[in-house]
């Protein structure tokens, strides 16, 4: 038996770093929403009690280091399952991009194994399990639009943003989330107005949303990789309504209300950056 799970990427509509915990992790407040750029996960039962991973990617390991593998191993261990699974990953989300691709895959594996093995485990429990492997996995288990607190594991669902188009531009660099957080200085860090972003969502006001989106990590990643700031400025001047870096970067996204304008921004930004996508919000 085989089944498929979509593993959609996320973008941050806000990312605030609040404080540092004793264990070295940071307390954050992040509003995230889901976009129509997805990996595709196929899960099929196999005879032996093993986890097999197949994927073609220069950037992602296809062994026990893969987050999808680790999610399956954790699921099997937690629920004492002695069955095997073959996980095939079609990787479409850029890697180390700030779009949560690895977390999306891990979350899809948790949801998918729940179905494959007929377990009926509530999403809340899968999200708690996922948080043991990575901060964004809880959000990805639920998808849609939510605010994440704690180190990212406490999820509260929010209403979806007003419909719009998303132009994504990923400069040809990978950014390690850990490296960026290591450079956080809480005395000087910028804090976005998260409450105004939430209000904008509930008022379905794209302009208010764009005016209030903000990311505490943008200046840090931008100082290491100035192309992030250049792409942001270019996207804004070409006509995106709001522009921000997602996660710890380096992907920059622009929100645009109308399709024609979104295509103009998409075509315009291709002159600055090789890897560009035009997608819709599905959160
Ligand atoms: P985050 O902001 O959560 O760090 P990201 O989008 O910046 O996410 P990912 O694409 O999730 O970054 O990749 C981060 C690291 O995880 C990479 O070094 C990659 O090799 C590793 N990794 C492990 N498994 C996967 C997977 N299934 N897909 C993508 N990356 C994976």
UniProtKB/TrEMBL annotation:
The organism's place on the tree of life at top rank: Bacteria
Pfam families named in the record: GHMP_kinases_C (PF08544), GHMP_kinases_N (PF00288)
Listed GO biological process terms: isopentenyl diphosphate biosynthetic process, methylerythritol 4-phosphate pathway; terpenoid biosynthetic process
Family stated for the protein in its record: Belongs to the GHMP kinase family. IspE subfamily.
EC number(s) given by UniProt: 2.7.1.148
Signal peptide positions (record): none
Task performed by this protein: Catalyzes the phosphorylation of the position 2 hydroxy group of 4-diphosphocytidyl-2C-methyl-D-erythritol.
Listed pathway(s): Isoprenoid biosynthesis; isopentenyl diphosphate biosynthesis via DXP pathway; isopentenyl diphosphate from 1-deoxy-D-xylulose 5-phosphate: step 3/6
Domain GHMP kinase C-terminal per the UniProt entry, residue ranges: 198-272
Keywords, alphabetical: ATP-binding, Isoprene biosynthesis, Kinase, Nucleotide-binding, Transferase
Domain GHMP kinase N-terminal, residue spans: 66-143
Reactions that this protein is recorded to catalyse: 4-CDP-2-C-methyl-D-erythritol + ATP = 4-CDP-2-C-methyl-D-erythritol 2-phosphate + ADP + H(+)
Catalytic residues identified in the record: 10, 136
Protein name: 4-diphosphocytidyl-2-C-methyl-D-erythritol kinase
Residues holding ATP: 94-104
Organism, as annotated: Oceanobacillus piezotolerans
Enzyme class: transferase
Listed GO MF terms: 4-(cytidine 5'-diphospho)-2-C-methyl-D-erythritol kinase activity; ATP binding
Alphabetical list of HAMAP family matching this protein: IspE
